[in-house]
Amino acid sequence: MEVSLGAIPFDLDFHPSSPIVASGLINGDLHLVFEINAHGEESCRAVRFADSGKIILTASPDCSILATDVETGKTIARLENAHEDAVNRLVNLTETTVASGDDEGCIKVWDTRQHACCNSFNAHEDYVSDLTYMPDTKEILGTSGDGTLSVCSLKKKKVKSQSEFSEDELLSVVVMKNGKKVICGTQTGALLLYSWGYFKDCSDRFVGHPMSVDTLLKLDEDRLISGSYDGVIRLVGILPNNIIQPLAEHSEFPIERLAFSTDRKFLGSISHDQMLKLWDLEELLNTPQENNHEENEAVQDDSDDDDDDDEMDIDIVPPKSSGVGPVFFSSK
């Protein structure tokens, strides 16, 4: 299934219980079952359903975070000047908290009951490209254009750990191997693998994508799905590292974001071709793909092993890689 969005999309999310998918567009529109001009002429960079799908959150370069009623399309609450700079990413934390990341590397945590900031981390020196949350350790992992991975502790209210600066911009992040590995996509197409507890430097570097890896989606503990600037969606194995097969494509237009439907029957993808595509996930995974000889030849692993010789800089006990579905700006 394909939906023409009429503008370049930046983010997408699936409703937790209904067959609804939302996209935030460059022209400021939120494309849902109906279209809402959520942020005026500014782009709508981040989108997340919350409160059991009753509301949807959006973030924008106008520095605001907006909560909209899904059923009526009306604004429930707006955090004006939520950040001093453009807001790029949103991630749900708990039933009453959400985190956001901006263009200058600041990550903020919001108390949704009081509509107030309860934590702020100056984690990076450049834009926050991606965020993920580990509920068991209460830590936010962030990647940035400054080439670093950060670990922000909600318990200690500080940046608990940060990697050394990479020559690559880090663009995307997922946690795999039962919480033991953090995988980051980069501007040059390499995947950097960090071991939990050893964040100063990556323990493995897997080169296989010909262009930047802009979005990552964990399929299971051993496989992820990547979206690249070359327009190809790939199935990738982690430890052993290999590109298993290409799954789908957007005609050479960069893949902006990937997401699973709640029942995991569909994979959603958005791209600079201004299209939202919904793929039958089982069909994608079970359809044999022709081997791409040139791509397979380009795949190489820069690390002979996965030893962690660097000094431990954070708790060695890995978290579970499960997520939580939170409430934001409660409509009660």
TrEMBL record:
Residues 288-332 are annotated as: Disordered. Residues 297-314 have a biased composition (Acidic residues). SMART domains: WD40. Gene3D superfamilies: YVTN repeat-like/Quinoprotein amine dehydrogenase. Keywords: Repeat, WD repeat. It comes from the Eukaryota. Belongs to the WD repeat WDR55 family. This is WD repeat-containing protein 55 isoform X1.
